[in-house]
Amino acid sequence: MVIDFVLHLDKHLSVVLESAGLWSYLVFFAIIFAETGLVVTPFLPGDSLVFTLGTLAATGSLNVVAVFVLLSAAAILGDSANYAVGKYFGSVILQKEGAWFLKKEHIERTHRFYERYGAKTIVLARFVPIVRTFAPFVAGVGRMSYPQFLTYNVAGGLLWITLFVFGGYFFGNIPIVKQNFGLVIVAIIIISILPAVIEIVKEKRRQAAC
């Protein structure tokens, strides 16, 4: 069922539009906010959803400006909320052994990104599922200054939404893309998780070498 949903994401979102009307904008806002702002929902669609909404906007089903503004706001506010949770409650949450929503490997993977890229992780993480959800949380735990965090948050959020919304808007309805839309979505997902996979492989090789 999950595979079918991913492969036919455009059709499923069209059903949401038909049933929810203007309320669908709020639904999409909530999904992106939750995917970036809540450490318990890293499994929600991110890149694929934003790209598909851009595609639907190109058909006239959605207003592309409204989509861009709402999703940008959701991405920026989501990261800010996640940062606040990390800053004020992160130390308490991390001390709880076996917290079902905080997998150790996710935190470690995010830490590796910070070790390699520093504050730029806030921008780069936008394009890496899982890390995207945990990066602002870890920034809050690490007490990164909020002005610095906000600068990277806004830059990363706008860059992420711009590339995927307008990528879908300008390329999603090209005949060859439309005819193979499911494969395109799968390709987006694979490409987006590739950096994380590479980091995991490198880490395992380092551990094996020790």
Describe this structure in words.
The structure is a single chain. This protein is mainly α and 210 residues long. Helix content is 79%, strand content 0%. It is built from eleven helices and no strands.
Ordered list of secondary-structure elements with their pairings:
Layout: H1 2-7, H2 9-20, H3 23-37, H4 47-58, H5 64-95, H6 104-117, H7 121-124, H8 131-141, H9 146-171, H10 175-179, H11 181-209
Compact overview of the structure:
The chain is mostly helical. 79% of the residues lie in helices and 0% in strands. The mean pLDDT is 83.
Any key phrases for this structure?
11 helices, 0% strand, 210 residues, mainly alpha
Portion in beta strands = under 5%
* Total beta strands: 0
Level of helix content? over 70%
Distance between the termini: 42 Å
Q: For the CA atoms, what is the radius of gyration?
A: 18 Å
Mean pLDDT across residues = 83
* Secondary-structure element order, N to C: HHHHHHHHHHH
Q: What's the main sheet like?
A: none
Shape estimate: globular
Low-confidence stretches: none
Provide the number of structural domains: 1
Judged by helices, strands and strand pairing, the structural class is mainly alpha
Kindly report the oligomeric state of this protein. Answer: single chain
Query: How many individual helices?
Result: 11
